[in-house]
């Protein structure tokens, strides 16, 4: 027994010695091999993951990010096609015989001669002043201003800078901005249109007083008003009173499609929308800064606008696609539209049938499935545009699960940057619920004596306290009353802020490598996605702008609705075929049949484009009214070299043709953060509350 214990001690000592020797060897190896190690830092790790920060770019898949070859011949060209003769304003002639005389000399009809006379540099002799109030959000404002300029040119009137009511209604917004300048650059707007119309910043003081006394006639034209309406109805009143007012609520005041003789007015619309309407410097600087931060990751960007807006959902009857209180909110708004005469149908409709007809927006989950079927990697960087996404973060959960790198303006900007964009604002009083004043002992005794015979029932338990978040938005009224409350001062201020957020999203959406709309070109009013698609078509027709047919996608989803996340191979091929066609001429022509009759800015072809002469001219496509939709573009002048510049820029960015590869090879998932009020957003190489330092 003693011998066994002594052997056990020697074994233990041997094992201990070997462990000490192994430890010494490992420490020696660590000492000599650790000389080349670099201390880890979060910024260094971010740069290592995103090689673009040190000049290393991943390879792009041309089939997912490259330009559309069939549309590369289209170039932006909104310049006037004719020289405008500096003649006296023919509308000032009261005698019809003089107009007939000039029309015979020129070889044009009386109406065409009148139009040609208006298509010129504005005369110093104006027929009067036009001031306007523009109601609505970002999309309605942009479309209305374009129509206002066109109407001013048509009537040879001087335009007063339009008043954006969304900013004027808000109480206590920054004193630095006033109405139009809250969103757009006034000086740029006036200077860009010097050769088209005369624009003044405000009415003279004596006319301001007369306006307050309602001495000038006001008109509320529809968005489908014709030029004949303005010449016959508005022009005589303008000449008589010299000042008229227009109230615009429908997102426009002139019909989308004009006669061929008025093509110069269509080009004027393009010059206003795509050149004169520039955002104020603060918005442009922050928007470009956001774009640079997205580009600094070294990978292409896909912008996505859900189109989930309460008014749109109510107008088309898509309430049943949502749940609980959101369905009630949509139905409540639809009931209001029926009372106002906007909706001519019954209140309750089958939302699932509407979705099959293509009337309802694509849900974010469906968009995610379509993008995955196209071949976009789960690590694709997707920018979420739109200041309003009805349904909140809940409807975006499936899309975030499929694409972790889903970012928005709050992911790219610090709180200070967004606050500086808004400017200094006066603080609003908190609308806190005040409890009733406490009763004194004497009052309680008097109530007890007046309460009547005993025994009395016990008093009810005290009410639950009303919290702050329950008094904001729809929490405070949807379950208690049928009437929607008047917007509070904070609600009006938030509506004004949405104009700024939409402007930032507009900049990113237009400049993104690809754009996918959840809803476009099918509503009663102009929508955000259609304006983005129109400007992308104008500036770079070959850029990847998806135009999905929601009827087709609804049929595709009906096939695989029960197994969306594991579709069959044939279904994936069908999705690819449809979306690829939507990018090219077939999708452009199909969409123009729907979009152009409702909004010219969503399809500014062929008036505002030209075609390179070396390219084969496609077949000319005409609409129901005989107007050109595609193929009727003029030949580009020689000085346009945009095609070669586009090809050179794409080559410099290193786009290749890896047909079966994913969208990019070295993409890395952005780490997630629980910051930003509980939303999972991409972690950035800077603190949200600090300024961005590109050299950091």
Please outline what is shown here.
The chain is an alpha/beta fold and 696 residues long. A hairpin with a 7-residue loop joins β19 (672-673) and β20 (681-682).
Structure description:
This protein is of the alpha/beta class and 696 residues long. It contains 26 helices and 20 strands. Strands 3, 4, 5, 6, 7 and 8 form a 6-stranded parallel β-sheet that branches. Strands 11-10-9-12-13 form a 5-stranded parallel β-sheet. Helix 23 (550-560) packs antiparallel against helix 24. The protein starts with a helix and ends in a 14-residue tail after the last strand. The model is unreliable at 33-58, 84-121 and 655-696 (pLDDT under 50).
List keywords for this structure.
696 residues; five-stranded parallel beta sheet; 26 helices; disordered C terminus
Helix-strand layout with pairing:
Blueprint (H helix, E strand, L loop, with lengths): L1 H32 L8 H8 L10 E2 H4 L8 E3 L19 H11 L3 H9 L10 E6 L3 H17 L3 E3 L2 E2 H4 L17 H7 L6 E2 L4 H8 L5 E2 L7 H15 L1 E6 L14 H14 L4 H15 L5 E5 L4 H7 L7 H17 L10 H6 L7 H11 L6 E4 L12 H6 L3 E2 L1 H4 L2 H8 L18 H9 L39 H23 L2 E4 L10 H12 L4 E2 L4 H11 L8 H15 L1 H11 L13 E3 L9 E2 L5 E3 L3 E2 L6 H11 L2 E2 L15 E2 L7 E2 L14
Parallel strand pairs: 1-18, 3-4, 3-5, 3-8, 4-6, 7-8, 9-10, 9-12, 10-11, 12-13, 14-17
Antiparallel strand pairs: 2-14, 15-16, 19-20
